[in-house]
Fold these 4 entries.
Entry 1:
Amino acid sequence: MSGYMQDQKAIDGLVRSHQVHRDIYIDQDVFRMEMRNLFVNTWVFVGHESQTPNKGDYFTTQIGDQPVIQVRHSDGNIHVLYNRCPHKGTKIAIDRSGNTGKFFRCPYHAWSFKTDGCLLAIPLKKGYRDTGLDQTESAKGMKAVGAVKNYRGFIFARLAAEGVAFDAFFGDSLSSIDNMVDRSPAGRLEVAGPPLRYMHKCNWKMLLENQTDTCHPMVAHESSAGTAVRLWDEMGQKGPTPAAMQIIAPFMSPYEFFEDMGIRTWPNGHGHTGVHNSIHANYSEIPGYMEKMVEAYGEERAKQILGESRHNTVYFPNIMIKGPIQQMRVFIPLAADKTLVESYIYRLVDAPDELLARTAMYNRMINAPTSIVGHDDLEMYERAQEGLHVDGLEWVNVQRLYEEGEDMETEAVVNGTTERQMRNQFHAWLKFMRAPGSTDAQVAAQ
Amino acid sequence: MTFPTKDDLIDFVYAEARMLDEGRYTQWLESWMPDGHYWMPLDYKQEDPNLVTSLLYEDNFMLKLRVERLNGARTFSQKPKSRCHHVLQRPFVDEMDHENGRFITNTAMHYVETRLDEQFLLALTATHELTLDQGILKIANKRVDLLNSDAAFGNIQLLP
């Protein structure tokens, strides 16, 4: 209807330095182009290696709208394959995780594949003799994605066979993953249980923008954080501080606190809140943890690692991590107006369990479909998704602390209430929307 | 007969569901022991409430906060308010230990929640651990297992 698929240049007109057009959130063609270009050209998070610890272990998810399987091959390496039998299209695995042994076997006609995707066997193979099957894509087995990178346990994939390299795409933003992993005395994380799964009737980018929106907590979350502070006062602040207070109350911090927190942006749409301070900075110390860290890293390095209080780090296009509490939120786009949010927690290997208990508490208090904080966020997104249909007022403003001539291709550290990171994301959005993505190596090479 | 009888326990579970449906939260909070937890696991047959994520694992303070918030002037997700409805199968009384004041019931329920034009249904099993506090039955702990606890949900705003 809108014609963006026919006129790719029209996409350029959707992003201005200080505002973006509402079609970015509500148009079906724009969404399809995101799936065909943006999510093909960029490095997208797949899963953590600890979700597939043993040979034959697999985990199913999707990259953009493409169903994929993360699987541990017999040589110990992790592969990412499209979840489709090359024969008739049947999904090879539909459970969320499992172990397939030494090979995948399609349940429809028993074509089987090694765990790196290579075709292993076809029943009644003589029926294909002299048919030219070996010249087809079907004979190549389960198709692998364009490229896979295991960065300190986090598996990323680029669907496109050729394109931006992993290190060039993420650059110095990888320091946030480093800090999260370094917080384990063993330098290792392990996923802890299944993720929360929260369905949002809104565009995935609204969630992404909200991660560095420091002007909403004290407003949208007054009903939860403000009420918590009031209740605790009314109780005379007697007895031990309720755990909920440590986690929820900082949301009510004044604007000045968030301004001073700072925001850093990196090229390609990555960025984080909490450069100098953050709402995660004042959690109580867990006995025995510092000792373990000093033992592992030495005092100076241990203090340096724990001195970081990065709040939310956005890895463009669709994840956010919280280093200080080892969480990841994945914004899986399902439609222009539908997004599945999965919230994972990780155990710091060799650290006291109390840290994981606090992380699990944070996850259920803030990220669950039953969360009194999440309720108000989702309410705002869904109201926006509907409100954006108003004709004649078609632009979304991202102008806060805008400066003439901002260069998103260089790192910057600025006032914590800026919307620069949102502008940074749209700059990257346009960049990776422009190049038509190709998952075919030959086409990409031409 | 010694209090509580099997019927007393069953009546208590029905009455609690009615309190939630009618929004009588002050009375509902008073029916809890101060150290009780309301647990709604995320995983099927989950055993650990602490080191993996749950949908809810709330102490007295969190439950108080949760119901206080429902009445706030700036509780945007509750403008307009949600309504809920429990349909109970007759509870099983799984444990009656008068000596230690420990009583356990297991109740299958259908829970319906609605707001604006949306309505959803959850099938669940509630396990009530009840105890006596100065001769009055109270909730020591409550566990709610959703049949599809691992599914993706939109907002669940009231208490199943």
Entry 2:
Amino acid sequence: MNRAAENPTGPPGTTTGCGPESAPAIETASLCKVFRDFWRRPIVRAVDGLDLSIPRGEVFGLLGPNGSGKTTTMRMLLGLLHPTSGAVRVLGRPPDDTRTKARIGYLPEESRLYRYLSPRETLDFYGRLFGLGRAERRDRAEQLLEMVGLTHAADRPVGEFSKGMARRIGLAQALINDPALLILDEPTSGLDPVGCRQVKDLMLTLAGRGKTILLCSHLLADVEDVCNRLAILYNGRIRAMGRVRELLRERNRLRITMPLLGPARTLELVATLRERYGEPVDVDHPSIDLERFFLDVVGSALKSGESASGAGRAAGLAEFLGSAAGRGETDQPC
Amino acid sequence: MLLRTRQFVALAALAAREAVRQPIFLLLTVSCAALSAALPVVLMHKFGEDGKLVRESALAFHFVFGLFATGTAASWSLSREMRSGTAAVVLSKPVGRDMFFLSKFAGVAAVAAAFSASAAASTLLSERVAERFVAEPLPGGYLVDWHASGRQWLAIGLALLSAGLANYRRRPFSSSAFGFLFLFQLVALAACGLFDRTGAWAPLRWNIDWRIVPAAALVTAALVVFAAIALALSTRLRTVPTVTVCCAVFLVGLMSDHLLGRHTASLPASAARALLPNWQNFWLAEALADGGMIPLPYIGRALAYAALYTGAVLFAGLAFFRRADAA
């Protein structure tokens, strides 16, 4: 057994730097998780030799089909599952260290809320776990409720909420401590396209303020829209990893975009290109994606003053979700 | 340290609040109160001590309904949270597993105490309704205190009505009803100190059998022990298996003196008897017969037994929970 396996939350071999503040946000080395049955017989190897290093300030996407080990990986990063072998460090410390947890925000796959608490009580409860004072808890709760568009439903039991509304309050609870690292499992699941766009914009804004985000999603468009880098898991192993643009770029094709020329000039241009370079040329109109089209339609309806039930309009980013750099949470040189 | 105390209080308060807001908890509490209130009306008690049967039956309701209330509360607050994922969210915050487990116990123990306070108030009221106090110059034969009985039923009805009104103002029905039930039963008890059994004004002639209070306190101690057992089992079992095993532990513990007490020479039998909770230590209703009292030293020993047993069970539960996957 290697050294890392003997100390599953010990320092991975790749760790360098001069302390927790300079370490990568997430680091795993040969991480494995085997689930066992009641008789301790192995049932499934959910994660198999995972090596990850996510620097601070990055938005990293974890992709994979069902059962590929994404959620298990996330739960090991949070100290909820004990690794069978391998090593994990989060923000330079073991994941079950309360100092680490104090700087993490976690949104699970299902929103996992106390169904008899109202959103306001929910946020107050989680704020208390972080040792926030009464006035600060109240202030942050109001800001977050406004941010996720649930001020009007702040005193209703969460158990009565639709999935999308529960998702919003789940996101709010993940942000109550103004975390340096956000771990989001399917954050847009159950949200309408407007909500999805708001969550993606929120992630981009938070990333712009120096937060590290680990995003786990089946929705490839979400990952493509917000992530700097991604890894694709299959059967608990990484099958591809790299920068999103690098991975998706078609290196042997080129697209030229230009203003509309009219049929005759277009045909002339195509003929010239074919004649001069001898390569096949395709011409079409670029199209906006369905999400953009949907948002335009709903935006027009909103402008006309039509009201909707359920979650209200979300406001901008909560004020207290300030710049991480301002509090010394970004990478510092040794 | 201050942060940890705050976290502990927040988690325990949440466990208690979630348990009290469960409809099943209200159902058990109101059933216990209503059945206790019905006892003096439906029981034929002509055994020379009118209050005895009512007192013992009401304490039995307190015990049995309390077992279900604390068993389900303990199981829901841990087993269900672990399966539903709310435990995972809480444990992703800066909260240690030991604190999470112990705060759950504190919350459930508080629920057991609150349930017991309500059930004890019901028992005191029912006994007052049924008991023909010999000190009172009453005509011979059985006399029900219909005035106290009316106030007892009124307390239940008013509690539900008030909770309905509170619910209209967006307050949770179950916890509001429980709070109002306790409050109105206290008011009904206080009214007993102002009127005699015929309804005449008689301030400060309580005619309440306060000897019931230590007996109810012992039942509460049993419920706390039971909560610890249910919580420890919940670290590994789901709700239904937890409640089933708890019922088995209750029945075997109740019979342990009878089943194992005869085999004192046998080491396994002695060990099993020591390991099983002996519920008979907490059931002292018969001691109140014929004007009897529960001796104070006995109460101290029983509470010490409950504390030691609870501590041992929680220690085992903690060991299980530390290695449990919370997902």
Entry 3:
Amino acid sequence: MTEITSLSLFELIKNIKEKKISSNEVTKSFVDRSQKSKKLNTYVTENFENCLKLSKEFDNKPNFDLKLPGIPIAVKDLFCTNEVRTTAGSNILNNFVPGYESTVTQNIWNEGGILLGKLNCDEFAMGSSNETSFFGNVQNPIAKDLVPGGSSGGSSSALAANLTPVTIGTDTGGSIRQPASFTGTVGLKPTYGSCSRYGIVAFASSLDQAGPMSKDVKDSSILLEVISSFDKKDSTSIDFKRNNYSSELTRNIKGIKIGIPKEYRVDGMPGEIENLWKKGIEYAKDCGAEIIDISLPHTSYALPTYYIVAPAEASSNLARYDGVKYGLRSSGESLIDMYEKTRSEGFGEEVKRRIMIGTYVLSSGYYDAYYLKAQKVRQLIKKDFDDAYNKVDAILTPSTPSSAFKIGEKSNDPVSMYLNDIFTVPVNLAGLPGISIPAGRDKNNYPLGLQIIGKPFDEQTVLNIAYSMEEKINYKNNITDWWME
Amino acid sequence: MTIDLKTVKHISKLARISLEEKKAEKLADDMNSIFEFIEKLNELKTENVDPLTSIAETTLRFRDDKITSDNIREKILKNSPEKNDDFFVVPKVVE
Amino acid sequence: MDGIMSKNNSEYLIERNDNIYEVVIGLEVHAQVTSNSKLFSSSSTKFGAEPNTQVSLVDAAFPGMLPVINEYCVKQAIKTGIGLKAKINNKSVFDRKNYFYADLPQGYQISQYKYPIVGEGNVILDMPEGQKQVGIERLHLEQDAGKSIHDIDPSNTLVDLNRSGVALMEIVSKPDLRSPDEVNIYIKKLRSIMRYLGTCDGNMQEGSLRADVNVSVRLKGSKELGTRCEIKNVNSIKFMQMAIIYEANRQVDLIEEGEEIDQETRLFDTKKNETRSMRSKEDAHDYRYFPDPDLLPLEITDEFIDQLKSEIPELPDDKKKRFIDEFKISPYEATILVSDIDTAKYFEEVVAKMGKNRDMKLAVNWITGELFAVLNNKNIEIAHSPISAKNLAKLINLIKNGTISGKIAKTVFELMMDGDIDPQIIVEEKGLKQQSDPKALEALIDKIINDNREKAIEYKQGKEKLFGFFVGQAMKVSGGKANPQLINEILKKKL
Ligand SMILES: [Mg+2]
Ligand SMILES: [Zn+2]
């Protein structure tokens, strides 16, 4: 039998249900491999002991009706986990141990999942390379000194390195899809309102969504089915009829109309990306889809809009980190002095930069010129998609404008770093579901991803297209375990 | 438009983040390059566009007026860097 | 001549060097919504709990916590809006007001800025000079902050978050008020309306009603508004009035000295009886309001509003009208009786219990006279009156049907207070029943006239004042129990 850690979630579940392997065996394999993979710096907090203990408990009293029977799962450290340290990759939450559980992770434990550990991420999910984490860079298992993408960089790296069978991330402007693309894995950002935001450390409330990350599309469908739920504790959670995504998964997408937006052909896009996209279109046709040229005229305004809306919300969401209730406190002579020192020492440079931008765009005299303007443009961007969906069922684009870059390569130029999310950000602004699947390699053999964007709440179609194309593309990560000790 | 040092300092005051002089200068540079890129929005005419305030197309859901959370003082104070048995503690505030 | 000229209660004029200034006042009243749980969380709002025992993860702004709105608080705000004859907005928006403070755990207050739930309305004030209408600018819902305690620990400030997140209605008036007296009547009227509606208990000691007071002055006759100062968070009517007087005079002094008035927020120091500028002047507040992305716009249908309209009880203005029409009492009496919902309730119960042969005059006099005096003395709310409405009605009926005299009734009233005793029982047990048997009274009067022959002759000769002497004698001899009306009649006949 192949190594346990390289099995897909689907295969693991099957084996456990057929009693071919135990939860404890599975857990041991992932713990062992994780312990030998410290060089990747994927874990902020390990929960190995407890996970092994719980897996034994599962084996003693197994419940095979559960959707994730005894499956160990590591999650992004942005999800609050009861009595397990939750840092959001920040010094300011370095010692924070919540006494509560996020709805999304609770859904996983309710279906038999077991917490393996908390995975590194960009500080407060602000970043595209995992370089802003207080806990250091994460290595991409694809090659040495390569970023794993961000902000869910610990998640994508751990997943690609087979340290966890699946994982969950959060996606505010591409933070699931871009790291998936950089690591040759699958990442799905659901429709805004599908997965509860309760208990997730907030970055930008109107954009944040949790979503599955996995090695193949089927695994994402299984995990989405578990984490997507209506939650009364989140006023933006939406009560709609959710599919049984995994059992309704099909490769029959004949006649489905897929739009190709001309505006995604951006200036200076590498030929490799262009080619990847072309190939993707061919694959989609092979699957029986009908390809239609469409226009999303406001695409180029998405990133500037995002860099007003997200920092504005973040500047307010992060005001609660003031040294009073939890987290870091620096001593100060007065209350204001204490606030200023705490926040200056507690936040990293990128977070401070975004708080500053956000504070500025909301400040007196600038609100209309920036924040209000951005909200109006956001409306136009959403309308672009509404119009497009009168003609097509889904949209196909590249996931990122480039493959993974070297650690340190872009960290001094915020704007060039922000451009990473050029294809993913419009999807968050419009609240739509989007998936990135591995679709090819660049000249360095680094993975490249394609993105499929769906109609609101139509995750099923997105998954079905991805599932069909995945078969044709037949991409495999060839990981050499170069980091192993 | 350029963001000068004075503005950066004012904003950092509003955001309650202390800034060293050197960092403030770097931040001013960064902010200027980011805003240069943001200014692209000015190309668009938006007088007749309604701002999008919420992407979730539903109305605000109501909660019943019930008390369902108990006294969890210990849990609430547990993570506080400075507290006593009953209160959060902050540096003396003079009004 | 310099001084304060107060021609009447409706204006407060200040004279300096022959210039006459008037004061212009607008109020931002913060009224705590009566509800079990908080505006966006499910912890209790009960007053007086141990510190930090009514704090949920949401109230303490833990990472990942989200607000979910309390329907009852929304209804309460709408009802209050209806009570203020105001426009209820079908769509309103919750904004974040961003600022840092020790008792503000989120680093922002959820409030309503551009689109409040209630728009323009008005309140009628019953001033001695007549009625006056005060405009309401808006009413919006917002969260209360926690409490910073400065006087327990000498070197630190302590923070109690029990109040954090409790629902407040901020009721903003137009700058229509012109005197401390009007402010007094305005606050009392608002309080009265909300207590009728059950939307705010109006308890100022417990902080359920506080106000930011905006004060400016201008030359009388001028149409333009002067520069205003906002005096923050004043928690009693008396302090509001003192603050207004101090502030108006301070502003007039500045103007007279040729100085400018800074638009600023000030505090009222109750010990020194003065207002002073708040310290944090250097970083003037910039609240960076924006719509709270954790909440959707609040949408209210007309059906929802109509349903609430149908639940609105009779409010003080309507009740007053009805009392005047139905009970034929004076507007002045009606104003007093409707001013507080419990008083009105008590009065109506007395009226109901008096039955067919009711006497409004007696009812009004006994409630606003004897009963109010007792309640005032003992500092008791009418809701906890030592004499129930039922028994007071009985007492009034005993007077009305001649069983006891008004004078005896006062004695009975005193005795009733000892455990709300039925006056009938007191009258019987103590034998206080009025003598109304004409024959017995005639005998009694015959005897008095006999005993005082000379005075009777003097009376007959024209010394009419002596009539009172005979009445007094009759009452004295009867131990106060003689029916005074009959005594009068018989005396007139016999003398
Ligand atoms: Mg105010
Ligand atoms: Zn207020």
Entry 4:
Amino acid sequence: MHSIAARWVTVALWLALAPLLISVGMRRGFREGAITEVDITLVAADAQGLACSLEEKPWGYACEYRAGGRERQPDGTLVPALTLDRLDLLVPELFAQAAVRDVVANNTARGALQERFVAKCRVRVLQRVRGVQRRFSATAAFEAPSSAWLVWPLGCTAHPDRG
Amino acid sequence: MRREDRIDPPLAFACVAMVAYGLWLRMVDLNFPRGMSWDEHHFVLNARSYLAGVPDLNDHPPLGKLIIAAAIELLGDGSVAWRIAPLLFGCANIALVGLLARWATGERRAFYVGAALAALDGFLIAYSRSALLDGMLACLCLATVWTAVRVRTALGIALASLLLGSACAIKYSAVVFFPILAWAALSLPRPALALPALLLAPPTYVGWFSLGLHLARQRTGVAAVIAETQRLYRHHAGLTDWKHPYLSHWYEWFLPTRPIPMRADPWSEGRVRVLNSIGNPLLWWLVDLAVLVTIAAACVALVLAFRKRELPALLGRLRRIGDTPVKRVLLLAAFAAPLLPWLIAKRDSYMNHYLPAYVFGIVLVATLFDAALRRFRTAAFVALLVVGQVAFFYSPIWGQLPLTRSGVYARLFVQSWRVQPGTP
């Protein structure tokens, strides 16, 4: 380190390490197989209103509808959801998650069907699903096909929406 | 070239690399987001008011907004125009910290180190990327002190007075630098010539304020400026709610507890582009250390002088601001001056109020690094590189590079640093 060459080597190592340090946490959170956290924005009314329509059954999970919303599927468990980061998700059995279920039940009992809350979920990203149609309330029409990430919830907590 | 003027090439290269990366972080995607964020609306909307000849509703004097207005007039009303002036002042801050460090040590090496530290600090970067006043204010405060101590003539004091008057016309809290300017004037061989030059600061303030009032088609002149200044003062004195989640007391700034999350814009694939005013934590704590070391050194000198009954001689030495220990005390005073109002006042305070002090703290760190590089060349060199590495790690939340949520949290590892932008 006392020689000029050693100091140049140190600077070279320092520079080589820089891109690694800068890129910590830059990798896309949503890649297949990743485990990440998402903040899903919901209201209690979504438990009845949110639905999707999809021909395929990725990873064996089905939407509640197929054929553009015309045919109901009895095994449909996928819930279309939106994160605070405006990321489109498909989450199997989202409303069966204990924390989400409790808030929905509580808010429904209070008549606060439109009170927004955040489901903070740790999820495993399964795959990008294309051609999914979503409906955001029971009386709305299905939207045009788009894509969403299919994620499996590993656990959720629910929080009031402070946004 | 004097031997001590030679700078170690690897050290110079590392410093230049840090400055280059710091400049890039200030400039990259400056137009993003295209809308206003955090407090930008206060200053951009009022800059537009000046251009439209409508009164300024903001609670600061006009100069900062007039500068933004000039950029809007030149470049059009867009996000680059709003932020270009703070960017230019922010780049000047890098040079000014380096120049003050060189003045304080007499070593060219200190210029490199000071500039590198200032270039790669997020607190300074955040205020270079936003249409806010604090970066511009810090720049004029640095320029005032540098001019006063470097141009050792009455003309230098006159120039420094113009700069100080302009700083006060951005935020009048800059008035706390007046005693430092007076100290620099009194330390000249012929202070009687320099002291009248101090009187240039108030008319400069009045001049800029009057220009703003004139553009807003309001009453101008000394009386109008005094009335407006009193109105602003009363307004600020009344801001004592302490309800905003970003508020922090002056003593919290040394940790810090509440850096300001200026932006968090959703990006593709669940990532987010964040701009946070958190500095380089390692440099931040080195500033605390440098301040403590300087205070300790000053206290030891005071006690020794008191014991030897040489206190009057020691105080007399304060007039010799060319002496290295006195230079450090002056920098310490420049660090302390912007903090003093917050020690006394109960007004709501935010971490941005620490910026004009913090820049002088970085100068103190640079002087310590310079001393360390002389005595412990290798260890100090490695320490500087480590400061750089921490800065590299933090740089995505200063340059708004896309990060995953876990990437943001890895950097904002203290819970209170994670307050979301827009939280009421």
